Amino acid sequence: MPHSRSLLRVARRITSNIPAAEDLVQEALLRAWRSFDHFEPGTNARAWLFRIMFNAFYAQGRKVRSSPVLVPLDDPVAQSEVKSSSGPSWTDSAALARALDALSNEHRTVLTLGIVEGFTCREMAEILSVPIGTVMSRLSRARHALRERLAPADSEFGHSRSSAACAEREAS
Amino acid sequence: MNCGEVTYLTPLYITGELDARRSAEFDAHLKSCPACLAELERQARLDARLREVVFAEESNAIRVDRRVRELIAAEAATGALPQMRPRPRRWVKPALGIAAAALLVIAAGYQTLLGTRVARVYADAAFDHYLEIVQHGPRPWLTDPAQIAALAEQQGIARSAVTALASRGYHLDRGKLCFLDGRIFLHLVFSDGAQEFSVYLRRRDARPLPGPAREIANGMPLCTSDIKGEHVASVESSTLLAVVVTDKSSDAALNFARFASAVL
User: Do the beta carbons of residue B223 and residue B214 sit within 8 Å?
Assistant: First the structure.
């Protein structure tokens, strides 16, 4: 099925649950197949499929509502992160995935759609049925939240462009 | 443009959605503001890393695909799925409101008055062609003619049939297997240099291709359907079923079907 891998990546993020993500993608593809006569040729089929998936997600009343990421107490990696004063490094794949999963559902959604799947802000607005300005602000806040979780003191990745530096430049 | 505006517009800049004027202003600001430039570079590095991490995660798309295909096949077999439904044309609604008698008549004969029912196999072929050829769905294809011929033989289709279709200006480009109406078809993609044609082949079985014949070519019935911009033509030989789909024109689909009737 075209795009099923891409749908699964996003479904995995909005459900935080692999079986629920597979069920959601399955439901979305079946709905798409059944309603192909409602598809407008010449429009973006990939965005259409994603919109169907999000509609299915909302229609389920969020029965597959995402649950918080549970960190086992005996997970040495997680424990070291808790103890670390500088937070996990963004170069660590597992830490980056956990930081993404720990964000709010809205933030995970826009980051996955926009950064991972490469949708434009306009396409995301259509998929999520929200104004484009909402997408832009969510994306900015999501990036900020992810970076906060990753490495607040990381010189490579942290917020080195301080508001003070910008304000100083704006004033000059 | 100031730093605040750059921060706000960064999502649109990254996705190329800024208009030319604001994009030039954005670029000009970056040239004069090392802090904003460094910020954008850090963001780009994080984006790349995030993509790398998420793409590396395992997902079982094959299992999901298989389940969806099984469900589609099961529902199609029981007839539970609706046929492709033509949407009511706008001018029909006032007409319905004018006369109650006409309403009853039209409602009773809705499907036949406003459009033609489309058989599932043709609807599936049109959908498959649109997603995988027109939209370039990321699917693994065989491109080696010898491998495609071997795949055809596995499905009970003679190599000579595949070879015969790749003649008279039609070039065989790629092939794979797919499901249409719950049955396996060999999906071949041919090109005439200007347009791609999907040809779905299957060894003839107890279920003939549906629909009234538009014409008889070389003793074989040819059927046609137009589905949401996709043009479908089918031909049934003594041994094979072939469904041709193109988004070019119904004549192009019909011409390929006539050609297929001559060589199959």
Answer: yes
What is the per-residue pLDDT for B83? 39
DSSP summary character for residue A38: G
- Interface ipTM: 0.76
Residues of A in contact with B63 (CB under 8 A): 22
In this prediction, residue A21 carries a pLDDT of 86
Identify which of A53, A3, A67 has the alpha carbon closest to the alpha carbon of residue A25.
A53
CB contact under 8 A, B59 and A33: no
Q: Measure CB to CB from residue A96 to each of B42, B49, B247 and give the nearest one.
A: B49
Assign 3-class secondary structure to A109-141: HHHHHHHHCCCCHHHHHHHHCCCHHHHHHHHHH
Average pLDDT over residues B56-67: 80
- Tens digits of per-residue pLDDT, B185-200? 899 999 888 889 999 9
Mean pLDDT, residues B127-148 taken together? 80
* pLDDT tens digit sequence for A102-135: 999 899 999 999 988 888 899 999 999 999 999 9
Would you give the distance in Å from CA B144 to the centre of its chain? 22
Q: How many CA atoms lie within 13 A of A51 on its CB side?
A: 17
List, as one string, the DSSP characters of chain B: --HHHHHHHHHHHHTT-S-HHHHHHHHHHHHH-HHHHHHHHHHHHHHHHHHHHHHHS---HHHHHHHHHHHHHHHHHHT-SPPB-PPPPTTHHHHHHH-HHHHHHHHHTHHHHH---B-HHHHHHHHHHIIIIIS------B--HHHHHHHHHHTT--HHHHHHHS-TT-EEEEEEEEEETTEEEEEEEEE-SS-EEEEEEEE--SSPPPS--SEEETTEEEEEEEETTEEEEEEE-SSEEEEEEESS-HHHHHHHHHHHHHH-
- Do the beta carbons of residue B196 and residue B234 sit within 8 Å? no
Mean of the per-residue pLDDT values of chain B: 78
* Residue A26 to residue B64, Cβ atoms within 8 A: yes
Structure tokens at B252: 């192009």
pTM confidence score = 0.53
